[in-house]
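Subgroup meeting minutes
Present: P.N., E.W., G.H.
Scribe: E.W.

1. P.N. recapped why we're keeping a running log of single-chain structure predictions: easier to compare across weeks, and new members can see raw inputs and outputs side by side.
2. G.H. added today's entry (295 aa).
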Amino acid sequence: MTTDIDTLQEYAVQVETLPSEDEDFRGALITPVDSSRHEPDEPNTPLTQLLRFIERGEPPPHWSEESESDRKSWEKTLGFCKGAIIRGIVNLAGEEAQFNVLWGPNDPHGGWFVQKMIHWIKDYPATVEARRDEERDDLAICATLCLGNLARKGTFLLSSHANDFTYLVCMQLESRCVVLVQPPISLVPSLLNLVGPRMDLKVKHGAFALLKHLSQSQRNRNSLGEAGTIEAIVHSKVWENMADIADMVQLSAIGIAKHLVTSHGRYQFCPSRLLCGAKHLMYNSGKCSETVSRA
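Output recorded in log:
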């Protein structure tokens, strides 16, 4: 059994590191291996199998027959392996060459991978009372970071100076960000559900990062404002957390607020208090940045 666990761990580490290093490996992850075994809405690719492992993989029943110390050690390793594979998938979603594959080119709603990520976000319980101790934060983190990477690609191109062809590509990428916000997907309420004051900071990081990218599209800002995004930022309590990752979460929140303050009528007056408070906090913490100074 120990040999099997060690093999799984080695495989998971390879999946974590190779997507950012090996082009052939990235291609192999998204290449169908047996078309006759496709699910109705999912291709039979190694990536599909990895997502199923993350979502459904559980300790096998015979582990219960082993000693408590062995069982806990194996369960810890299983959790590590899922985390490593999630990081690998997030890296894959951040690679330019895979962007048009992971976002289905012939599906206006993004295709199977995007729909899987949307499902993981929307499936997270909306109320604290409905959440269990073992609630799958890892699925929400994976989904928000993957969609954030796909949306970030559009943000990068939109800021570039290029020819007419690139301009058309920019507009296409922006429209994909709009797809996530507008009906029928309407993802914003589900994302705001992930930034509540009692949510884990890593979950907030993924949600705020994705919201920041979505807010950079002018066409999305009215929907973000009407959904109460600024109010959610105020109540998220990210300003009270001094963990290392809190820097990134706070900067994402400031970026969202900056876009909405300048674009949405309901926030013309009160949000300045939020921005001033955020600046004050970051300066006092010695974490000043160009992003904050421009907010």
